[in-house]
Sequence to fold (233 residues):
Amino acid sequence: MSKRTKGTCTYCGKTYTKNPMVKHLLSCEARLQAWTHAGENQKTAGYFVLLISGTYRPQYWLIAEIKDSAKLNDLDQFLRDIWLECCGHMSGFKIAGVRYESHPEATMGWGIQDKGMTSKLANVIAPGMVFEHEYDYGSATALTITVLEHHTGQTKKEKVAVLARNHPVQYSCDECEKNTAIMICLECAYDGYGFLCDDCREDHECGEELLSPLYNSPRSGVCGYEGSVKYPD
Ligand SMILES: [Zn+2]
Ligand SMILES: [Zn+2]
Ligand SMILES: [Zn+2]
Ligand SMILES: [Zn+2]
Fold:
């Protein structure tokens, strides 16, 4: 899967693939207007802009803005809400060689001193850094996060805002190899295939109960993932 997926800029509505979108957003007029035109009395806050991609599924990507006073917990929660949460698995960040765990008590017994996720972003990341996030150490979904920039802008109510994300990825059916897939077989997905179109799903040998709809997430087809409620595609 080397298909490049496009996304839409939430400020001006233009569509680009991932890297052109990064360039676009950093200079998007509509976006710059929105945060530089803070009134005299308006409060300002520092924000990081992050590019987040599936490490092994880079066709899934998003660009988000997050307050620099937010904690790693907030970023973890955002990633769970938009892309990851299935059954409350553990997760962790690896930043500059240090691990920050969602359940630091779980590894304590092994003599490892992992940190929790209470650090403020401003204290652990900076523009130009690349760091990792992993959700579920069994059937892991790994994300690579690049810190694109830091700026001061008008304070927003939300800690995190999505600036752009990939449109749903189109896969072709692995059986007829011609129609667009609408489901994935969770059993076959372990072996790297299992995309099925509407015509082929009924005759699939593993049975209908193993079929899952496709979700716009790098966790689509993994464990019990059932899409995002808070951030529909
Ligand atoms: Zn734009
Ligand atoms: Zn799960
Ligand atoms: Zn088919
Ligand atoms: Zn199957």
Observations:
- The chain has two domains: 6-165, 183-213.
- Residues 173, 175-176, 179, 197, 199-200 surround zinc ion (ligand 3) (CB under 6 Å).
- The two ends are 20 Å apart (CA to CA).
